[in-house]
Design brief:
mainly alpha; elongated
Length: 181
C-alpha cells in the first residue's frame, strides 16, 4: 500500500539532494572555464551541451552519492514524479532561450541561467525548506545584475556566479534543519 502524501513528502525531504546540484555545478563550471579559454562561438555549444546533460550527469552522480535515482527497488514516491516535472520544465525553457540566442547570442547565459533555475522554487515547497527559494532568487538577481554590469564577460561571470550559488546551496542542503518555509 502507498504511503500517505505527507509521509511521502517527508521521506522525499529527508534525502541528501546532492546529485542534481553537483551535476549543475559541474555543467556551469565547464561553461565558465570554456568562457575563459575559448571564443564565444565554442562556449555557446558548451553551454547547450552541458546544461542539456545535467539530468544525465545527475543520474550517474546519484550512484556515488547513495541517492541512486534509477533504483527500481526503492518505494514509489509521488514527489519523485513532481520533481521530474520540474526537470521537464527546465528543458522546455530552451524554447524561450533559443530564439533570443538567435537574435543575441550573449543572451544565452541570462536565459538558460535564470529559466533553468526556476525548478528550485517548487523544490523548496516540496521539501519545506528555504534553500530552493534562496537559490532561485539569488541566481535570478545576480544573473540579471551581472549580465548588465559585465557585458563583455557574460560567458564567464554568469556561469561562475551560478557555480558559487550551487556551492552555497549544497552547503545549505547538507546542513539544513527541518525548519519549514
Amino acid at each position: 500500500m502507498m504511503n500517505s502524501l505527507e509521509k511521502q513528502r517527508t521521506e522525499f525531504a529527508n534525502r541528501k539532494f546532492l546529485a542534481t546540484p553537483l551535476s549543475g555545478l559541474i555543467a556551469w563550471l565547464l561553461v565558465g572555464v570554456s568562457g575563459l579559454i575559448f571564443p564565444d562561438r565554442i562556449t555557446v555549444w558548451v553551454l547547450f551541451v552541458t546544461t542539456g546533460c545535467i539530468v544525465y550527469l545527475a543520474l550517474l552522480i546519484s550512484k556515488f552519492t547513495g541517492e541512486n535515482f534509477l533504483d527500481k527497488h526503492k518505494p514509489e514516491n509521488v514527489f519523485d514524479g513532481l520533481f521530474m516535472y520540474t526537470v521537464g520544465q527546465a528543458v522546455l525553457v530552451y524554447a524561450i532561450a533559443i530564439p533570443f540566442f538567435l537574435i543575441d547570442f550573449t543572451s544565452l547565459p541570462l536565459t538558460v541561467g535564470i529559466l533553468t533555475g526556476t525548478m528550485w522554487l517548487p523544490f523548496s515547497w516540496i521539501i519545506k525548506h528555504w534553500a530552493g527559494i534562496f537559490h532561485a532568487v539569488l541566481r535570478t538577481v545576480l544573473i540579471v545584475l551581472f549580465w548588465y554590469v559585465f557585458p563583455e564577460q557574460r560567458f564567464v561571470v554568469i556561469p561562475f556566479t551560478i557555480v558559487v550559488i550551487y556551492v552555497i546551496t549544497i552547503f545549505i542542503l547538507l546542513n539544513r534543519t527541518k525548519k519549514s518555509i
